[in-house]
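Hi everyone, sorry if this is the wrong subforum. Our group has a chain we'd like a structural model of before ordering constructs, and none of us has done structure prediction before. Sequence below.
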Amino acid sequence: MSNYLKKTSKNTKRTLQEMKDRGEKISMLTAYDYTMASIIDKAGIDVILVGDSASNVMAGNRTTLSITLDQMIYHAQSVVRAVKSAMVIVDMPFGACCGNPMKSLDAAVRVMQETGADAIKIEGGQEVSEDIKKILAAGIPVMSHLGLMPQSIHNYGNYAIRARNEKESEKLISDCLLVESLGVFGILLEKIPSYTATKISDMLKIPTIGIGAGSGVDGQVLVIQDVMGMNDEFSPKFLRRYADLHTVMSEATRHYIEDVKSVSFPNQSESY
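Answer:
Right subforum, don't worry. Here is the predicted structure as tokens:
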């Protein structure tokens, strides 16, 4: 059995730093419920992100903006109960960390106390630097999220690649260096040119996790429903599907319906 399937200790931010230092790539997937988290944790995933993408894939909202702090805490509690070895990081939802350090600290403390998670993730750089400092000072590990930031979708107007022009690229690099200096343990880089992501990863001592950022980063993250092929309506360039559960589950449901209608389920052995 491969070593990565034999892990018995709980991953922490120190684990991720050690992985970067020795050149081992970091694997991360999202999860929002007990069952899915249990499956991927037992499979050996390094990190589970309880993403605000739950707003889209679990609740059917058009953007991530609709999910609340209470809802994120609920999803995170479900995930943490299932996890034995993966590091669990929880997204701070829209409005929880937006330039009011004390409000941000209160929200971060709630997440850590009520869920038992290992860290939080915050979208933004210089604009939320005071929030990050306040949270870090309280002893809460923080991962930053830069590049395409879904919580700012109304500012962008679309989900296009970010940091393609010089000005935005310089701002991204500046923000990465800033948050590293503040003490975040890692940065998630979303949908930026691969050469920029590689440049940033080489510049920084802390780990970088990419989604649509090429292979030069220190790790990768994807949404579990996309990876497993449960969602057949979302096909960005950066997505690789490792299963087709949409087809499997649809066919299983049709077979169940047929068996119920024909009274072949339950049979005698399935009855008391």
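For your construct planning: Strands lie at 26-30, 47-50, 87-91, 119-123, 142-147, 186-190, 208-211, 219-222. The first helix runs from residue 13 to 22.
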